[in-house]
């Protein structure tokens, strides 16, 4: 069940729900992002509790924008625990980007795949985009594996695309078109 109206977004994704963030999510979100393993592919500035608070405020503000083009949603368990975040952003007409951040205790559980698959459905069916892409640090093998598991394919690798933690990082761009989506997801 997907619901998009002037008040909130709620997308059911298998055993989890994707919903708009609330101010009360701050402590759980800070705890989730404080895991050192989560910091491997983020800059020092992006790894702080203060940054988690800034992001949460931005996600809440984005949920009130009209027309709405950014949907950074909380991934919540059936018991109400914040498991992470997954988002889709309309970048230009017909094109959107997605990203997912799931707490380490749920890695390998299928939660990220459920959430990302639901965002593909939401993007192609509800937002009517024709192409969805993701960008990630090339060394983030788990993120690339997740994208491939939902049917995305590598489109490009950008060399020395980002600089943080005293080094440069390559990024990988993966993509899926609406025409490819039903065919690829039925085999995945």
TrEMBL record:
InterPro entries on file: Acyl_CoA_acyltransferase, GNAT_dom, N-acetyltransferase
Molecular function per GO: acyltransferase activity, transferring groups other than amino-acyl groups
Segments forming domain N-acetyltransferase: 16-179
KW Transferase (keyword) present: yes
Keyword vocabulary terms for this entry: Transferase
Protein name listed in UniProt: RimJ/RimL family protein N-acetyltransferase
Domain of life assignment: Bacteria
Keyword Chaperone in record: no
Any Pfam family: Acetyltransf_3
């Amino acid at each position: 069940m997907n619901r998009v109206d002037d008040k909130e977004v709620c997308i059911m994704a298998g055993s989890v729900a994707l919903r708009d963030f609330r101010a009360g999510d701050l402590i759980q979100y800070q705890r989730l992002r404080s895991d050192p393993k989560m910091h491997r592919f983020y800059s020092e500035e992006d790894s702080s509790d203060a940054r988690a608070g800034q992001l949460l405020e931005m996600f809440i503000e984005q949920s009130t924008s009209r027309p709405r083009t950014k949907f950074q949603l909380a991934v919540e368990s059936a018991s109400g625990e914040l498991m992470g975040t997954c988002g889709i952003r309309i970048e230009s007409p017909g094109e959107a980007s997605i990203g997912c951040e799931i707490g380490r205790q749920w890695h390998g559980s299928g939660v990220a795949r459920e959430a990302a698959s639901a965002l593909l459905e939401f993007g192609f069916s509800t937002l009517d985009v024709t192409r969805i892409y993701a960008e990630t640090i090339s060394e983030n093998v788990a993120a690339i594996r997740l994208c491939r598991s939902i049917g995305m394919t590598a489109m490009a690798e950008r060399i020395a695309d980002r600089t943080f933690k005293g080094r440069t990082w390559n990024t990988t761009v993966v993509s899926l078109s609406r025409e490819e989506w039903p065919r690829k997801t039925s085999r995945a």
